[in-house]
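Why do we care about 3D structure at all? Because function follows from shape, and shape follows, mostly, from sequence. That is the central idea of this module. The next example makes it concrete: a single protein chain, its amino acid sequence, and then its structure expressed as tokens.
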Amino acid sequence: MLNRLRRTQGQLAAVIVMAEAGRNRKDVVTQLVAVSQALDRAAFKIVTGGIHQCLTERQRGHVPPLSEAELEKLLLTLA
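And the structure:
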């Protein structure tokens, strides 16, 4: 997940350079959409990791780090 975020950071830096250079707006927007989608995928990966961790903790008889309501709220923020 960190690698995905670092790649996205690089993509965003490239978009900034494109905008500063006065590149075609369509090209800049296309790249911004790619950055946005990459961020969405990273966010979903974080939430699914949290769900997995909570299920694992519950199976072990431990209290999960997030409640079901907290996980649901995180997931809905991505919608």
